[in-house]
Amino acid sequence: MLKLNVGLSKKIGLPDYGSRGAAVSLELDLESSLVGEPDRLKERIRQLFAMAKAAVDEELAAQSPARNQTKGVNSAGNGKSPCNGHTNGDRRDGTRRATASQIRALVAIAERRKLDLEGLLAERFHTREAAELSIVEASSLIDELKGTASNGSGGRR
């Protein structure tokens, strides 16, 4: 058995020299045979980092009820507009929306695997649009669909 540990922390500067931060550490047991398959191992590492980043970003967004008070600063605090076309990067429940990259990935995976993405989204998340998913939901679904596609075990990992 191989253990994969990923840690990520992020701080965002606030007005008046303040800041807020979040950190996450994830550990995953992998089959030791992945050492002999560097591409698959790197993909698992990237997936774990993506999950860690999504969790940290969501936590930072949830920490501050007045997160968008500073004009021109989105919930990531970087002054850029959200990349998925929404007026702010948050859903009604305060969680961050799926990114444009995540939405493209979901659509591409569904097309490649000939899945009914709208049906899956309706059944699992009570929506028909990937853009309505949270960043964490989208990340989890991408990981699940990639895992199902790569291991051929019908979704079992």
Describe the structure concisely.
The protein is α+β, with helices and mostly antiparallel strands and 157 residues long. The chain has one domain.
Write the layout of secondary structure elements.
Layout: E1 2-14, E2 18-30, H1 38-63, H2 100-113, H3 117-125, H4 135-151
Antiparallel strand pairs: 1-2
Any overview of this molecule?
The chain is α+β, with helices and mostly antiparallel strands and 157 residues long. It has one domain. The chain has 4 helices and 2 strands. The chain has helices at residues 38-63, 100-113, 117-125, 135-151; strands at residues 2-14, 18-30. It has a two-stranded antiparallel ribbon with strand order 1-2. The protein is flat and about 50 Å long. The two termini are 14 Å apart.
Number of helices: 4
Secondary-structure-derived class: alpha+beta
The spatial strand order of the largest sheet comes to: 1-2
Count of all domains: 1
Characterize the biggest β-sheet. Answer: 2 strands, antiparallel
The oligomerization state is single chain
Order of helices and strands: EEHHHH
Categorize the overall geometry. flat
Mean pLDDT: 75
Low-confidence stretches: 65-88, 152-157
Q: How many strand elements?
A: 2
Summary keywords:
alpha+beta, two-stranded antiparallel ribbon, 4 helices
